[in-house]
Design brief:
Layout lengths: L1 E4 H4 E3 L13 E2 L24 E3 L4 E4 L8 E3 L4 E3 L3 E6 L9 H5 L2 H10 L10 H4 L3 E4 L2 H40 L4 E3 H4 E5 L8 E2 L5 E4 L14 E3 L5 E2 L4 E4 L7 E3 L4 E3 L3 E6 L6 H10 L1 H6 L11 H5 L2 E3 L3 H29 L1
Helix pairs in contact: 5-10
GO molecular function, one term: DNA binding
Protein name: Restriction endonuclease subunit S
Keywords: DNA-binding, Endonuclease, Hydrolase, Nuclease, Restriction system
Length: 348
């Protein structure tokens, strides 16, 4: 085991193409999913202004807003956004199969955040990123480690498929329960607060002020995770509010269990009746996520505007119906957790 710099075992690919770009699959920063190592979305046969080439096996690192933790392995040759750094393994120093896990790593992202420059859209350069230091075993041990990590990732994918099937069951139950229920505008049943970004000099990681959430990168299974704080909040959500991402990806939701500041990528939504009804809104929004996402507008970054969100039609369910659906959805969540715990026990 020896300590190395990232730049000693990998390099930035600087290959470009300005002609015949239509033949390449296109990857933008929006196609990289936070904390996911596998690329699952891209575009094809589309005119674009991108010139940066990547090759199969390269790591695509989201250099803009590194706190979003975007880094995936490329499954094919393609062309990508300038906000993506293309990283190529030096195979005599590090196994290409292991490099994605070195990059998609909290320690590296923390390093990248510290080296980023810019207030609204901080970016990190390869010249800084290559100075990240980490422990690296010999090639034989790298092979064992890579095999283990890919096995863990496969288990994670199995769990994600279960989540998808369980969510489809909840969606079917929602449709069955409320297909004949009258619809009303969201703003008749809930208070909606659109987020607003405070000045960047008030951002901090030292717990000064309120927790600050900018978008869905801070979301988890149900409750938002605190990563950043704001000492001069402009828009404040209450504990128990539903937080909805109103900028790509549009429509994803979480709950907040504490008073917090929300940036322009989020909206806070709370029932006009009582906080206990927020749980119904959370699960209803999850079921309606595709519909909400389809309301997104914009040529570069999709977003849903205030008028569209206020006018979103919701089932005007009575208290008993809401409680029934909440109970069903919560049992679904419990099933996910139980299966995840079983998988962890099996892995152990």
């Amino acid at each position: 085991m020896s300590e190395v710099f990232l730049g000693e075992v990998a390099k930035e690919r600087k290959e470009t193409s300005k002609e015949n770009k239509v033949r390449y699959p296109i990857v933008g920063l929006e196609h990289l999913i936070s904390e996911e190592i596998t690329l699952t979305a891209w575009e094809e046969n589309k005119e674009n202004s991108f010139t940066k080439i990547f090759r199969k096996g390269d790591v695509l690192f989201g250099r803009r807003r590194a706190y979003l933790k975007k880094a995936v392995v490329a499954p094919f040759d393609g062309i990508c956004s300038g906000d993506i750094t293309v990283i190529q393994a030096l195979p005599d120093k590090i196994l290409p199969e292991l490099l994605p896990f070195i990059i998609q790593n909290d320690a590296l992202f923390d390093f990248a955040i510290g080296k980023s420059a810019g207030s609204l859209s901080p970016r990190v350069k390869w010249e800084n990123l290559k100075n990240f230091r980490f422990e690296l075993p010999d090639l034989k041990e790298q092979s064992k480690l890579a095999s283990l990590l890919w096995s863990i990732d496969s288990t994670k994918k199995t769990y994600q498929k279960l989540i998808q099937k369980t969510d489809e069951l909840v969606k079917s139950q929602f449709i069955e329960m409320f297909m004949n229920t009258d619809r009303v505008r969201l703003d008749t049943m809930a208070v909606i607060l659109m987020g607003q970004s405070p000045t960047s000099d008030s951002y901090n990681f030292d717990a000064q002020g309120l927790p600050f959430y900018q978008g869905s990168a801070d979301f988890s299974e149900k409750y938002v995770k605190t990563r950043m704080y704001c000492s001069a909040p402009t828009r404040i959500a209450n504990s128990g509010d539903v937080l909805m991402s109103v900028r790509a990806p549009v429509g994803t939701v979480n709950l907040t269990d504490k008073e917090c500041c929300i940036g322009r990528g989020l909206a806070a939504i709370r029932s006009k009746k009582s906080q206990e009804y927020n749980e119904f809104l959370l699960y209803a929004f999850r079921v309606m996520e595709d519909k909400i996402a389809s309301m997104g507008q914009g040529s570069t970054v999709l977003s849903i505007n205030k008028d569209n969100l206020h006018g979103l039609l919701m089932p005007n369910a009575d208290k008993h119906q809401q409680e029934q659906f909440i109970a069903f959805a919560q049992q679904s969540d419990k099933s996910k957790y139980d299966y995840f715990s079983w998988m962890l026990g099996g892995a152990a």
